[in-house]
Amino acid sequence: MDMSNTVPEAQAHEVAIDVDTVSKIFPGEDEVRALDGVSVGIRRNEFFTLLGPSGCGKTTLLRIIAGFEPPTMGALRLDGKDISRLAPDQRPINTVFQNYALFPHMSVARNIGFGLEMLGKPKREVNETVDRMLKLVQMEALKGRKTSALSGGQQQRVALARALAPHPKVLLLDEPLSALDLKLRKEMQIELKRLQSETGITFIFVTHDQEEALTMSDRIAVMKDGKILQVGSPRDIYQSPAERFVANFIGESNFLDATLSGTSVTLKAGGGAFAVTPPATVADGPVSVLVRPEHAAVRAGAASAEGDLPVTIRTVVYSGDATTVHADLASGERVKAKMSNSAALGAPPLPAEGETAVLTIAPGGVTVLKD
Amino acid sequence: MTDVPAPSQMSSAPARGVLEDEALREDNRSRWLMSMPAVAIILCAAAGPLLVMVIYSFLAPGDYGNVKWEFSTEGWVSVFLERDIFDGTLGWADAHLSIFWRSLSLSLITTVVTLVIGVPTAWFIATRPDGKREFWLFLITVPFWTNLLVRTIAIQELIRAEGVINLVLLKLGVIQEPIQMMFTNFAIGFGMSYVYLPLMVLPVYAAVEKLDFRLVEAAHDLYASRWTAFRRIIMPLIKPGVIAGSILVFIPSLGAYVTPRVLGGGKNLMFGNLIELQFGQGRNWPLGAALSLTLMVAVMVALIFYVRVTSREERNG
Fold this sequence. Notes:
heterodimer, A: about 375 residues, alpha+beta, Rossmann fold, CATH 2.40.50.140, 9 helices, elongated, B: two-stranded antiparallel sheet, 13 helices, globular
């Protein structure tokens, strides 16, 4: 079963890591199917993120790519060559571990040079690369320090430098930012993106943090229960989620009942027809649609124009840059509308809680979901 | 407690200072009081007898054991040297030297054998899933339930001429004549390895159990083969346990008494047996005392050397 034959030549060369219907079953009394026929092509020089809740199989997939776990079924190819049976030390792939896994009995420099030393590089080359890496992660001053004497952020940088030093074809990052505080995490997100473009190495990043995924990735794969639900750019994933789970996991969402007919939907709550481009698999009839809170707006008054939805205001939450209004539609469904406070400067005041008002949805703000 | 009085204020509030001093003194006193039983035991059971040994080693032997209260260095001289019966000239005490050598070599062999068996065993136990390790550790401690002498005699039953091993080998036709294993150095080494094995397994287990296996994965990820990962990552990290185990096996082996006596017989003496001999049939208490102190000093020198080496290694990272 060689899938690469069916892929056009030019595209096949683009793919660095080709995960081909990989399954992983952990045997035991209660057998766990951690991965269930996962296929995905990760392109060269790409910042690719595996996103999903804990237990979705993202770390298992990463460990299979690294070589720590063999796949139960399926194949794994790197630049077209099958590497599923290679040991971790035979793969030009390095990992930044969740808890860094720095060698406690070695200095910062020895840690960073370890991979190159194992590859049998001459001492001078090792030293030069170590110095370059220390500079890259801005850690020159701590070269001779023991790793146990470093702060979390510093350990993070050493772990990155250690994994980048042998210049792998692919760098795997297993939730490397989860142990850092918020401010440092934000800094490192930008830092990682910079390192990726400077080194030109393919990054595969695992996280459960949707904001992190949106900030850094070229493409995101959203995973659930050992399956990949959707692969796409952050914009694709956010604006046109394929499934309710994806929409719910990334950003905030309103799910409304509606009826689909061709390329327009009618909400149960009224407001006339909305133009949509439904997925090919969805047939006419009752469907579930997604409206992002920032695509909905609430104003005082009564429904008058086409597209106006009458609502009753329940709560108004002010959060600095935006105001979120929770309201009930005529259908009884609860919706959230999130309005930028800068857009509201000089606008008439929002209706108070308990009053009736009008909700409008921006053009293209309605997305039909698969389920 | 937020306002610590400045030195100048101290004098204006003498009552408080005195009270604090009193509390501190009270605290010190109760601490001393609590450590008294331990101090008493050390004085009576360790320091006292040691002093007696030092004094005895500089006295002359009594005719029927015990000592004569006259100063003599003969005890110390005859640890390594021997006076010729006819002309009184000094020569190396070959009998003693061969016993020292046997003790040293058998102790080293015992340490190596327990290392070779004990490290994989400890590794095996430490890598069992949670909840199953206790069972294996429990099995390791089972031998301690039986008296050492009984266990040693049980080994005799295994290796004597009509013992289990010889019988099985004879029945299988592997050998025609029973192999002489009793009263050989092999028997002593075999017995001591068996007796001291748990002392190797337990500290190594503790070290392996603490080992972070993600570090091993990290080493493989950075192109280290299994052997290199063991040598460069695992060994340095479990070294403290391995060294503790080696010390715990080597030191008692050097002074072992029961096992060499039961399995080695009268010809294959070890250091412990030689000392016992001086206080028993030999009736040379000063020599026995000097031999004991020699053994103690040798062990201490080895330990100090070890501490020096490891602390230097740690500094150099």
